[in-house]
Prior knowledge:
Blueprint: H1 12-22, H2 30-38, H3 42-56, H4 60-68, H5 73-80, H6 83-96, H7 102-111, H8 114-128, H9 132-136, H10 141-154, H11 159-165, H12 172-183, H13 185-197, H14 203-213, H15 218-229, H16 233-240, H17 243-252
Amino acid sequence: MATVHPAEKFSYAQDGEKLKREMKGFGTDEQAIIRILVFSSHSQRLSIVKYFKEENNRELLEELKEELGEKFDDLTYALITSTAEYFCYEFNSLLEAESLDERALIEIVCTRSSDEIKEIINQYPKSYERSLVGHIGDSTPARRLTSAILKGINDGQTAADVIQAETSDESKAAVAIAAECLQNTNAFFANSLNNAFNGEVSHKTLTRIIALRSEIDLADIKAAYESAFNRKLGSDIKSKANDDYRFALLTLAGDS
């Protein structure tokens, strides 16, 4: 069950003009901008992006990145780019990081639809001038499995088909992550959220799951989270996230 639904009284033109006003002059009311974005659905936000470009000949994404700053980059990409563009951004961020989050890498290819994966594969060279499979490579079992899943989906297989065919001992850990993801997706995401709150908070994980599952099954993930850890997701967001970012996550999670 979703936690974000289309706004009933919505006007892409009015919201586009509101955003333009909020970004004028000195000082930015970050919460005012975030409010405009999180109280509408993804498709409604994309219509605001289109209107903004047509009316101002400027990209809303670049304007928001400049106004909101680097701390909101992940959230901005998640909210106002296409699903394919966002996951290209996410893949690139993961692959360019000093330490690769292999669980996140496998999560993406096992939880998006075949059509979405194909769109991501097609979009990646347009965004980063290299193939996604080529960037991932095969230097570790997790990279090798992820590349195999991408190739398999592009050739008409499913992630499950690819995983079942992977029997090497060195791939056991990566296969176990993929199997956990496919067998109980809600529990998998609940575990990932719990991991994100432990130690140094992983805002990238929180953003990816909360923003991208908010119109699919975030209510079910929240229930799995509470069942597994005896804590409410909203309470953990309140205690671990700050200011406008906290407000955005709580709103997307249906807990504002």
